[in-house]
Amino acid sequence: xxxxxxxxxxxxxxxxxxxxxxxxxxxxxxxxxxxxxxxxxxxxxxxxxxxxxxxxxxxxxxxxxxxxxxxxxxxxxxxxxxxxxxxxxxxxxxxxxxxxxxxxxxxxxxxxxxxxxxxxxxxxxxxxxxxxxxxxxxxxxxxxxxxxxxxxxxxxxxxx
Length: 160
Known about the structure:
By secondary structure, the chain is an alpha+beta fold. It is 29% helix and 28% strand. The protein contains four helices and seven strands; from the N terminus they run βααβββαβαββ. Strand 2 (56-60) and strand 3 (66-73) form a beta hairpin. The chain starts with 5 loop residues before the first strand and ends in a 5-residue tail after the last strand.
């Protein structure tokens, strides 16, 4: 796929309801595979608008074909809710989004990208691994005795 143009959303962006729909459709495949259920069930248009104020929400297209949420944390940029329309998977859009996240990290003086991936979603571990992310630790959701997710990181210098 050719290099796409991504736009940063403002809190009043008319596309926010479609962003919520995109994330729901894109994450639907994991519904019966993960425990506990995704935080997606608590996500609302108002919450996305707030994230536009406190972090960044980037989208491709109108209506959105891909999106990601970025949150600045100490010494790193957290990449969350990376979603690509299911009909467009496998075309390099996720990699372009990771590259955009890396550019945003550099602009903020950060050298690390971080994300979380559920332990059950082996194909996601592999996809992010191909983009240079490495598992650095695991975490456990409240109420669970065993780890439920991995934290993966990538230094910006490793991005192509």
